[in-house]
Design a protein that fits this description.
Length: about 350
């Protein structure tokens, strides 16, 4: 029997030319559609075995394989969410049928809903999966060209110390030390809020972020300056596990209504919680900290990611530029004036 019914769903059963027993759900309650799918699968199985054609894989299969292979990625949850949204366009779509025109329509829909930057993130995911399907899994022979939208370069948003002082006065007590610690270490919000006492050594003045907690999947060693130490000592004894709490419970989010209201009362606009990290990096750059040291402190994966702060340290660059002047002798200068 090639079709059998389980509950209201028709199941497909047949033996391929290689002798393999195929048994799978058709996903439909309509027998005619189930029969059509059965015939397609049986014909494809014959072409694969007898004619040596590549089997036809769907976007769903590629998405599942991609998620299984990338469970270690920090962006795994975001990738799952993106794939969920893409299903409305690509569900059960054979990979060979995903072309530039279809991808362009998907991008246009996302631009209408969000922005070109957001659409580019979805385009990048589609490109990555199709490239894996082609070059690693050998499921398809070629990948359609996918052109991203041009994106304006985002400026670095940071606060001078004077504005931070104003903000501190407006913050509720439970957020002050979270902000102080963030500005003192440059850690991301998730790493600060999930920090446990087991990750802190007050004697050595050191904290650490485990590799599986870091965005770059590389452990980060966090030297604790006197300001960071003060924030930690004020939290000591409030909770047996987590460092930062509110009413005896670990903080879940810092980007709260209280945070936004404090910004509003401070007259600070266009400022996100992540901009505290930008402020930390900007202060260090302005103080002459070399970019390679800043990269190490911030746990950035590449030097390119930290170069955006280089323009904030002109004074330090001037010190190095002056080294050339030291090479000029009085004789050279005298000749230049003749």
């Amino acid at each position: 029997m090639s079709l059998t019914k389980r509950g209201s769903i028709w199941w497909i059963i047949f033996t391929s030319p290689s002798g393999d027993r195929i048994r799978c759900s058709s996903g439909t309650t309509e027998k005619a559609k189930a029969q059509e799918l059965h015939d397609q699968m049986k014909a494809e199985a014959w072409r694969v075995i007898r004619l040596g054609e590549k089997p036809s894989y769907t976007w769903d299969e590629a998405g599942v394989k991609f998620l299984l292979e990338t469970q270690h990625k920090a962006s795994h949850r975001d990738d799952k969410a993106k794939l969920g949204w893409l299903q409305q366009f690509l569900r059960n779509k054979p990979l060979q049928e995903i072309d530039r025109e279809l991808i362009a329509k998907i991008a246009q829909r996302k631009v209408a809903e969000a922005s070109t930057s957001t659409a580019n993130r979805y385009l990048a995911l589609i490109r990555t999966i199709l490239r894996k399907a082609c070059h690693e899994w050998e499921w398809i022979d070629k990948v359609p060209k996918i052109r991203a939208y041009p994106e304006p370069k985002r400026r670095i948003r940071w606060l001078p110390p004077e504005q931070v002082a104003v903000l501190m006065k407006e913050l509720p007590e439970h957020l002050r030390d979270v902000v102080v610690f963030s500005l003192s270490t440059g850690l991301r919000q998730g790493n600060v809020l999930k920090l446990e006492w087991s990750q802190v050594d007050l004697d050595l003045k050191l904290a650490w972020i485990h590799a599986d907690q870091a965005k770059a999947r590389k452990a980060i060693s966090v030297p604790l300056n006197s300001t960071a130490m003060g924030a930690l000592l004020r939290q000591a004894g409030k909770h047996p596990v987590r460092v930062f709490t509110y009413c005896g419970k670990p903080l879940v989010t810092a980007n709260s209504r209280a945070w936004r209201k404090a910004l509003e009362r401070s007259g600070i606009t266009d400022f996100r919680w992540h901009d505290l990290r930008h402020t930390w990096a900007s202060w260090l750059a302005q103080s002459g900290v070399p970019m390679n040291v800043l990269q190490e402190l911030g746990g950035w994966a590449s030097y390119e990611m930290v170069r955006k702060y280089a323009h904030l340290s002109p004074a330090q660059l001037g010190v190095h530029a002056e080294k050339v002047s030291e090479r000029f002798s009085d004789t050279i200068l005298a000749q230049s004036t003749k």
